[in-house]
């Protein structure tokens, strides 16, 4: 058996299970072991970056950081711009946890590598991920600038990915531009429905739920939060920053306004919705039953 091809096959399997980390992680770890055994440098860079990505999702950035750093150093030695751009993107995300000042230099090196490779999709991904880092650290204007650059790349590629639209929604929501945020989330929702993008549907629904909670329409927010939670569970998606914070704050606000029992009743209604029902509900105007006063005091 060709061990190198086996290693790549393991990584393909991990990619197919990317929404189920419990299945993907052992495949990535096995691929990394195979890469070290065979000494194949390209396989090793990809496996190192993949393992570092998994560590980040599992909130174990300290474990993933050395792996990402090794991936970058090996990619630099290989002088492979595709691998370098990807591994730098992973390192950028992990370093942002402890050293956000390092992000701009890493981003520019990664963008230069992606441009050298002629890979506009990599440029889009890097700009989007840099914006997410900025949202996590509260640098909203920086995030918006990166997302505007990412949006240009997205349009050049046919506008198929939901990530930039959803993150634009978050940046605009953070700036209290609720109308513009709603436009972004609804556009992402429509696009995700056309493309059969389950993750895009879930994140768009979450964005609209947060807008409803912030506007005091907590009954409607509870239904949308339940729908988003059900969608995330069905695809095995794990919320990470900043969406985990946005989600938890919206839940706390709606639960405070409605009371625990009423919140759960409405959230269960959302969880029971199918894709089309959730899509139509998300875009429909609120009914009196779905509207309730906002909490009297902000929820921390």
Question: Could you give a quick summary of the protein structure above?
Answer:
With 300 residues, this protein is mostly helical. The protein has helices at residues 3-16, 21-38, 41-57, 61-78, 81-95, 103-117, 120-136, 140-156, 163-174, 178-195, 198-214, 218-235, 243-258, 260-271, 275-283.
Descriptive key words:
mainly alpha; 300 residues
End-to-end Cα distance: 57 Å
Shape: globular
Sheet having the most strands: none
Number of helices: 15
Unreliable spans are 294-300
Tell me the number of strands: 0
Structural class assignment: mainly alpha
Which value, in Å, is the CA radius of gyration? 20 Å
Give the SSE string: HHHHHHHHHHHHHHH
Q: Please tell me the overall pLDDT.
A: 91
How large is the share of residues in beta strands?
A: under 5%
User: Can you give the helix content as a percent range?
Assistant: over 70%
Q: How does this model look, in words?
A:
With 300 residues, this protein is an all-alpha fold. It has a domain at 197-300. It has 15 helices and no strands. Helix 3 (41-57) runs antiparallel to helix 4, helix 4 (61-78) packs antiparallel against helix 5 and helix 8 (140-156) runs antiparallel to helix 9. The chain is globular. It starts with a helix and ends in a 17-residue tail after the last helix.
